[in-house]
UniProtKB/TrEMBL annotation, chain A:
Keywords tagged on the record: Cell shape, Membrane, Transmembrane, Transmembrane helix
Species assigned in the record: Sphingomonas tagetis
Cellular component annotations (GO), alphabetically ordered: plasma membrane
Family, as annotated: Belongs to the MreC family.
Domain Rod shape-determining protein MreC beta-barrel core: 137-272
Positions of transmembrane segments: 20-42
Domain of life: Bacteria
PANTHER family linked: CELL SHAPE-DETERMINING PROTEIN MREC (PTHR34138)
Matches recorded under InterPro entries: Cell/Rod_1, Cell/Rod_MreC_2, MreC, MreC_beta-barrel_core
Gene3D superfamilies given in the database record: Rod shape-determining protein MreC, domain 1, Rod shape-determining protein MreC, domain 2
Any GO BP annotation: regulation of cell shape
Protein's name according to its UniProt entry: Cell shape-determining protein MreC
Stretch forming the signal peptide: none
TrEMBL record, chain B:
Membrane topology, as annotated: Multi-pass membrane protein
Keyword Metal-binding: no
One GO term of the biological process aspect: regulation of cell shape
Protein name: Rod shape-determining protein MreD
Annotated TM spans: 20-41, 87-106, 113-136, 142-160
Main location: membrane
Family: Belongs to the MreD family.
Record localization: Cell membrane
Pfam family, one: MreD
UniProt entry tagged with the keyword Repressor: no
Keywords from the UniProt entry: Cell membrane, Cell shape, Membrane, Transmembrane, Transmembrane helix
Length: 297, 170
């Protein structure tokens, strides 16, 4: 192929200066980009407003695409459901009779549990749901793991609120615009969730690895052995995530640091549930009211 | 139409629609990330960057040297990378391609592909170093992403020349 010589301006001074100036502008753009990059590394939510405005524009498109995908992917299930409904009916009837005993047991256990908690004067904080909304798209080409929720500050979503699905923890809100919110998924390399082992309450930290898995680090004593199948739930430490939301399950036997698979997949999720932070940051009034109660006398 | 054998002579053999179609298709490439699946690791090729490189290598005269600054800004708003990332890396790689253009004179598609491969690798690895902490376990998936993107580049290059369309005299 012949050389593409289109950038050579010839002998015209005007064209030469024009080219020179456009390269100067490009160089200036590089500098501006570098400065913005430095600023956003030191203060990640610095450009939340700009991103939020753009996200307001594109999230309706993404919601439409998401709706289409759900519609198409529900077709095979609909067809098989239509033909399999008879067998399913019989199976479910058998399951109901089998579960009746279990439900009775669970009911009595719950009652007993409530009575014991009342005896202990444990104060339960119910984590109130803020809104149920869909995750519509994620940053699939980036090494960061953000997803966009199609509900925002007009629906009551605020930064810092935890997001969960039916199977477990999804992440937490980091940026909010009027109708959209950006969720930091627990798979993100900068996400950290305080957890405990379901079996014995061993405290640990679940940090995202960036490749879809989660790293479980023991928070306390050294030489902790993680067995495959160990399930971890949020511990409620730190006050952001409510306790007892499933987070991850260990895949391989290892010491001190184990890799685990998250239990909730943001992709197969129908609705994400945004909740209030477990303990909201103490304001001057609530902090003042609570202090004498907790102070040693 | 006129039947004259000299009908197309003297006219530019480039299409006028590329002026607006190129930026539009690059921004649309950036918006591919709106595809409705929620990836748990970086797997989607950076279509915005690949469209930019395809246009740049296909029509070197088309985009101004400062165009990647604005296009990169649009990409940063949706990509999830920190703002400024694509503005910086896209512009630097376009300037480097301009510099190399003055060195490599005769050119075939494999050299274009090599240039694009270098630019894709530079932008993705640079973005990884900037965005994710060094200890993150993203390097293997990032390598796979880079390889997929490089392998897909000829497809986008053909697509861009199809979009450009009227590059033959009529």
């Amino acid at each position: 192929m012949a050389p593409p010589n289109n950038r050579r301006p010839g002998f015209s001074r005007r064209a030469q200066y024009g080219l020179f100036i456009s390269y100067m502008i490009a160089g200036g753009g590089v500098l501006v980009g570098a400065v913005l990059l430095l600023l956003s590394m030191f203060n990640p939510p610095a450009y939340a407003a700009v991103r939020g405005a753009f996200s307001e524009l594109v999230t309706p498109i993404a919601s439409g695409l998401d709706w289409t995908r759900r519609g198409i992917s529900s077709v095979p299930g609909g067809i098989s459901g239509y033909f399999g409904v008879r067998g399913e009916n019989e199976r479910l009837r058998a399951e109901v009779t089998a579960n009746r005993v279990l439900v009775e047991q669970a009911r009595s256990t719950t009652l007993e549990n409530r009575r014991l908690r009342q005896l202990l004067k444990v104060r339960d904080r119910a984590a109130d749901p803020v809104v149920a909304a869909r995750l519509v798209y994620s940053t699939a080409s980036s090494t960061r793991r953000f997803a966009t929720l199609n509900a925002g500050s007009w629906q009551g979503v605020r930064p810092g609120q935890p997001v969960r699905g039916p199977n477990g923890l999804i992440g937490r809100i980091v940026e909010v615009s009027p109708n959209t919110a950006r969720v930091l998924l627990i798979q993100d390399p900068e996400s950290i969730v305080p957890v405990r082992r379901l079996r014995d309450g061993l405290p640990a930290i679940a940090a995202g690895r960036g490749d879809g898995l989660i790293e479980i680090r023991s928070a306390g004593a050294a030489q902790v052995l993680f067995e495959p199948g160990d399930a971890f739930v949020t511990s409620g430490t730190g006050g952001v995530f409510p306790p007892n939301i499933a987070v991850a399950r260990v895949r391989r036997r290892s010491r001190d640091i184990a890799e685990a698979a998250p239990l909730a997949s943001p992709d197969s999720l129908d609705f994400a549930l945004v909740q209030q932070p477990f303990f909201p940051e103490a304001g001057p009034t609530t902090g003042g009211a609570r202090a004498p109660e907790a102070a040693p006398r | 139409m006129s039947g004259s054998p000299f009908a197309g002579l003297g006219k530019a053999d480039t299409s006028a629609r590329a002026r607006w179609l190129a930026p539009l298709s690059i921004v649309l490439g950036s918006l591919v990330t709106l595809a409705p699946f929620k990836a748990s690791f970086p797997i989607l090729p950076p279509f915005g960057l690949m469209m930019l490189l395809a246009w740049r290598l296909h029509r070197p005269d088309l985009l101004k040297p400062w165009a990647p600054v604005l296009l990169g800004f649009a990409d940063d708003l949706v990509s999830g990378q920190p703002l400024g990332n694509s503005m910086l890396f896209w512009t630097v790689s376009c300037i480097l391609i301009d510099v190399l253009d003055t060195r490599i004179v005769w050119r075939d598609f494999f050299q274009d592909w090599l240039l694009a491969a270098g630019a894709i690798g530079f932008c993705l690895i640079g973005g990884r170093l900037v965005a994710a902490p060094l200890g993150a376990h993203v390097d293997t998936v990032l390598l796979i992403q880079v390889l997929i993107s490089i392998a897909l580049f000829p497809v986008l290059s053909r697509f861009v020349s199809r979009l450009d369309g009227k590059r033959r005299a009529r």
